[in-house]
Amino acid sequence: MRTLVAPSILSADFGRLAEEIASVEAAGADWIHVDVMDGRFVPNLTIGPVVVAAARRATRLPLDVHLMIEDPTRYVADFRAAGADWITIHAETCPHLHRAVQAVKETGARVGVALNPHTPESVLDYVLADLDLVLCMSVNPGFGGQTFIRSALEKVASLTEWIRVAGLGTLVAVDGGVKPANAGLLRDAGAGVLVAGTAVFGAPDRAAAILAIRGER
Ligand code: DX5
Ligand code: ZN
Predict the structure, then answer these.
(1) Does the beta carbon of 179 lie inside 6 Å of ligand 1?
(2) Cα 89 to ligand 1 centre (Å)
(3) 36: CA distance to ligand 1 center in Å?
């Protein structure tokens, strides 16, 4: 399957958010990645459902909402109502991960689970088959523009093999420090979705950046 590229609006100009989203849609983005941070699970604060609703009005692309918040089940219905197509929760925030995954599914959204760089994929034992997506963090979540952590490659490869052997259709996504220079390794390891903030929004030619991350030039 063709690798999907999901520009993260964390690196967009929020004063011109609708234009910025339209710009990456025109440049060939597959999904729009939206980083929600609560100042507790991660050090930074970003946006809530009101901004997701504004993003929803700005594009027809799937909205991929990455919840870096404690107790995410409190908010999944609100993000779904705001227009999220995909909702990803962090394994580290969910002592009852199976229940939280079902709570996302009940909203009708596709469900993802994110793993911090040090969190082993084995936390997904007994829940992987319920997931539409696993998001491997390749930076410690909280900020755009950080350096890619290489151990994510091993995790992507291991998850890809697990999913293949189990005969599942789960997508493996990677988020953090993704750029044309490491995208090829990630695609080879099995990543089906590459999230990129600065590498797309910071590029002089966003269409070229998306093509390069997808491996099409
Ligand atoms: C980090 C966020 C990422 C971030 C990626 O906590 O989850 O989505 O925006 O930004 P870059 O691609 O600049 O590392
Ligand atoms: Zn993210």
Answers:
(1) no
(2) 15
(3) 11
pTM for the whole structure: 0.98
CA 195 to chain centre: 6
Residues 141-186 have pLDDT tens digits of: 999 999 999 999 999 999 999 999 999 999 999 999 999 999 999 9
How far, in Å, is the centroid of ligand 1 from the Cα of 162?
25
Integer Cα distance of 131 and 111 in angstroms: 6
Catalytic center residues: 35, 175
| Pocket flag, ligand 1, residue 90 (CB < 6 Å) | no
Q: Is the shortest distance between the CB of 11 and ligand 1 below 6 Å?
A: yes
Asked if residue 124 lies in contact with residue 158, where contact means CB atoms within 8 angstroms, the answer is no
- Report the alpha-carbon distance of residue 190 to residue 206 in Å, rounded: 24
Best probe residue, ligand 1, of 31, 195, 206 (max atoms within 8 Å of C-beta): 195
The DSSP-derived string for the chain is -PPEEEEBGGGS-GGGHHHHHHHHHHTT-S-EEEEEEBSSSSS-B---HHHHHHHHHH-SSPEEEEEE-SSGGGTHHHHHHHT-SEEEEEGGG-TTHHHHHHHHHHHT-EEEEEE-TTS-GGGGTTTGGG-SEEEEESS-TT-SSPPPPTHHHHHHHHHHHHHHHHT---EEEEESS--HHHHHHHHHHT-SEEEESHHHHTSSSHHHHHHHHHT--
Task: Report pLDDT digits (tens) over 97-112.
Answer: 999 999 999 999 999 9
